[in-house]
Design a protein that fits this description.
Number of strands of chain B: 2
Largest sheet of chain A: 5 strands, antiparallel
Pfam families (chain A): MlaC
Oligomer: heterodimer
Organism (chain A): Halarcobacter bivalviorum
Number of strands of chain A: 5
Strand content of chain A: 15-25%
Helix content of chain B: 55-70%
Number of helices of chain B: 11
Shape of chain B: globular
Helix content of chain A: 40-55%
Distance between the termini of chain B: 59 Å
Protein name (chain A): Lipid asymmetry ABC transporter MlaABCDEF, periplasmic component MlaC
Structural class of chain B: mainly alpha
Order of helices and strands of chain A: HHHHHEEEEEHH
InterPro entries (chain A): MlaC/ttg2D (IPR008869), Tgt2/MlaC_sf (IPR042245)
Family (chain B): Belongs to the MlaA family.
Radius of gyration of chain A: 18 Å
Strand order of the largest sheet of chain B: 1-2
Strand content of chain B: under 5%
Structural class of chain A: alpha+beta
Chain lengths: 190, 240
């Protein structure tokens, strides 16, 4: 009896959090709009805004994958503890950087431009921030994690992939410094 | 026994899934640590110089300027500059055989120069005539010329051999330089050219306050970040 309930609970929670392919765009419309309304809310303090936004976006991001991709080949040579440590620090830095950038766009509108499927198991949601003078393209890149769950593994800002820029920087850093120095460096930025 | 089989199946499927995943992403991202960068020493110091100048001179100037000049006026100036540099975009669209875009640019120029009060306003965009940015660096790329090596220009920031040549070529056509003697040139000496470029730079920064700071704040390696972002962005612009 209890087992039945347990399974039911499991199934219902995964249904709640899993994003299916056909739902990705409406799902993102809803997420982005709620982020914008938090940003516009003048009654909230900065920290409250940050934690609310993070709680909205957290379930959609695959942080561990992002950490792995940003490190490239280096990832495989690490012990699992180091991988965990790096993932944790990278996630913190990424979140902070994301929030920093959001701060600039308070009064703007977001337009959804549609989706693309560059290949199997990938879906890109194209959006643009409408500014007074220029528009600012943001593309959310999803991959199929499991049968019916899609997650973000990268974001393009005006055509620039953030994972790619981290990857380039980490590779440059590790060319003449050690991995522990990289961890220390990330620790100062979180 | 059955449990063991299930366990085995689960393990293989997990391993297998991870294997696919890894292969899947490997060609989406690349690491170019050994790319040809003969000027890297100079480039790194120029990056620090530009960063310092931007944060300590340009950004505060732009902030003060934004307090004095209302946003409507600053947008107007920006529109005016965009409109008057129409020849660069027109010529480069033609050179890249993008005739529809060239025509669209011509339409924008006509409408904005007249109904848009000499380009201060941008009614063309509201009429769905889009700005089609093309420069000579992109034209060279269109004809298959590679980017050469990376060069960080003073004040202008990241560039490469091809785009620097492009910048000079576009300077010949641009009404905002004194680099040739076409009748439509506004400045007639170097000082005036520099002054106009400085106003353009400060005005642009005043409309984009905080963006550069937010982008570079969490940099692990500023030079790699700006270089890679520039390369990715150019790649996209060239494709369009």
């Amino acid at each position: 009896m209890l087992k039945k309930y347990f399974i039911l609970l499991l199934v219902s929670t995964t249904l709640l959090f899993a994003v299916k392919k056909e739902n990705i765009e409406p799902f993102m419309v809803e997420k982005v709009n709620s982020v914008l309304s938090i940003l516009k809310n003048k009654e909230l303090k900065k920290e409250e805004k940050s934690s609310k936004i993070i709680s909205i976006m957290d379930p959609v991001f695959d942080y561990t994958l992002m950490a792995r991709l940003s490190l490239g080949k280096e990832w495989n040579s690490l012990s699992s503890e180091k991988q965990k440590e790096f993932s944790f620090l990278f996630t913190e830095v990424l979140k902070k950087s994301y929030l920093n950038k959001l701060d600039l766009y308070t009064d703007q509108k977001v337009k959804f431009l549609g989706t693309q499927e560059p290949k199997k198991n990938r879906l890109v949601v194209n959006t643009t921030l409408i500014g007074e003078k220029d528009n600012f393209d943001i593309d959310y890149k999803f991959y199929q994690k499991t049968e019916d769950e899609w997650k973000i593994y990268d974001i393009n800002l005006v055509g620039v992939s953030i994972i790619q820029t981290y990857r380039q920087q980490f590779a440059g850093f590790l060319k003449d410094k050690s991995f522990d120095e990289l961890l220390k460096n990330l620790d100062t930025k979180k | 026994m059955r449990k063991l089989v299930v366990l085995f199946l689960m393990l293989t499927s997990i391993c297998f899934a991870q294997e696919i995943e890894k292969d899947d992403f490997s060609n989406e991202f690349s690491t170019k640590t050994e790319s040809f960068d003969p000027l890297s020493g100079y480039n790194r110091s120029m990056t620090s110089f530009n960063h310092y100048v931007y944060l300590n001179i340009v950004a505060p100037t732009a902030k003060g300027y934004a307090k004095v000049v209302p946003e409507v006026a600053r947008t107007g100036i920006s529109n005016f500059i965009d409109n008057i540099t129409f020849p660069i975009r027109f010529v480069n669209n033609l050179l890249q055989l993008k005739f529809a875009y060239a025509f669209e640019e011509l339409g924008r120029f006509t409408i904005n120069s007249t109904f848009g009060l000499a380009g201060l306003m941008d009614p063309a965009t509201k009429m769905d005539l889009e700005k089609r940015d093309e420069d000579f660096g992109q034209t060279l790329a269109f004809y298959g010329i590679g980017e050469g090596f990376h060069i960080v220009l003073p004040f202008f920031g990241p560039s490469n051999l091809r785009d620097s040549i492009g910048l000079v070529a576009d300077g010949y056509i641009s009404p905002l330089t004194d680099m040739s003697s076409y009748g439509y040139k506004i400045p007639n000496n170097t000082e005036k050219t520099v002054a106009i470029q400085a106003i353009k730079f400060v005005n642009h920064s005043s409309l984009n306050q905080g963006k550069y700071e937010a982008f570079t704040k969490d940099a692990i390696d500023l030079y790699s970040l700006l270089k890679d972002a520039y390369n990715q962005r150019r790649e996209k612009e060239i494709k369009e």
